[in-house]
């Protein structure tokens, strides 16, 4: 019989296996109560918990104490082999152990195992005390290689080089620092981030994600709120099962426009004061995000068509946020003409303000939704979400009038909580956008 998806959120637990530090394997399928896996674009690693109910005394018989390996392999039925969640984690803690007495049969106990990506465990035990000099993307790849990961790693090209001595930072901390010094090759915004999804590790710009999605139409699909009165085209959802896969529940708007924050935090404008330690001088560099916004790609497309969450007259003073940075011209100089000419200290004027505003922008409009789980979705992907207008409606309303024109549109998935039991998989996703609604078909504002 051919494998098929029977209901939205169905999942196949192809492997859930605990391997002790002595090499003994224990299949946990029969003991599973709930598996939670967390991935987040603003964390360098994945982590989670598995809740077990145990009447066979696994803890004592196999000496389970928090140094085990957990192998997880999940797949949505009918999905391709590449669209699975498959990873080996390190167990680091056992908690919430509760014995449940049973006078008729043997007692049972419930407990939780906490796990984390093995790359994190390797990272914290591997301080770096060594020099690096190269294009930043090459340095990032080299540092990542020191972690000893067997997962794929995508590194977006960086335009500038760097020369520095790592002062005992862990590899993850070193890569996070390099992200703040990187100038992209193919985009404008300096919003590099380093994160792990359920498929691989990434070092990339958020703007690069937006640009790729727009140019390749790489969106997961169109999601709707359960019970909302919106038009769903037959060509988009050709069965009840497909409809259920794209229905969201428990929709919460976590963050919305906050103009006091915009003007006081440095989002709209900020200033960097360069302190030239070599020449005993200083320089003020002002940055205006209202001017830079149209030059960047955003969640709803090109900056020329994207509608910002602030008005065109929303001016702000760069004095609302002032930062200081030491500038060291001719750093690593060996002679009059021999010095490191790609000195990052002298490039921060073109990085600092843009990065500050571009990263703040990801917290302007934020939403949380719960949807049926799918193993092909990872953080860093984009989807189209239709938010209904809360107003009286009648049969004469057009499709355009059945959609909230500000908060519908394209969202970036920044975090996912995968919740899995023996039969169901749900995802609670955190979504963010940095621009307001643009019609997905006409491109009109």
Topology:
Blueprint (H helix, E strand, L loop, with lengths): L11 E8 L5 E3 L4 E9 L6 E8 L3 H4 L7 E7 L8 E17 L7 E9 L1 H7 L6 E5 H10 L7 E3 L5 E5 L5 H9 L12 E5 L4 E5 H11 L5 E4 L14 H6 L1 E9 L3 H6 L4 E8 L4 E8 H4 L4 E2 L2 E2 L19 E6 L24 H9 L4 E8 L9 E5 L22 E12 L4 E9 L12
Parallel strand pairs: 9-12, 13-14, 13-21, 15-19
Antiparallel strand pairs: 1-2, 1-5, 3-4, 3-22, 4-7, 5-6, 6-7, 8-10, 11-12, 14-20, 15-16, 17-18, 20-23, 21-22, 22-23
Helix pairs in contact: 3-4
Question: What tags apply to this protein structure?
Answer:
six-stranded mixed barrel, 9 helices, 35% strand, disordered C terminus
Beta-sheet strand percentage? 35-45%
The radius of gyration over CA amounts to 25 Å
Helix/strand/pairing category: alpha+beta
Uncertain stretches: 439-445
Portion in helices = 10-25%
Q: What is the residue-mean pLDDT, rounded to a whole number?
A: 88
First and last CA, distance:
49 Å
What is the count of helical runs? Answer: 9
**Quick one: biggest sheet?**
6 strands, mixed, barrel
Strand order of the largest sheet: 13-14-20-23-22-21
Molecular structure report:
It is built from nine helices and 23 strands. With 445 residues, it is of the alpha+beta class. Helix 3 (136-145) packs antiparallel against helix 4 (171-179). The longest helix is centred in the middle third of the chain and has 11 residues, at 206-216. It is globular.
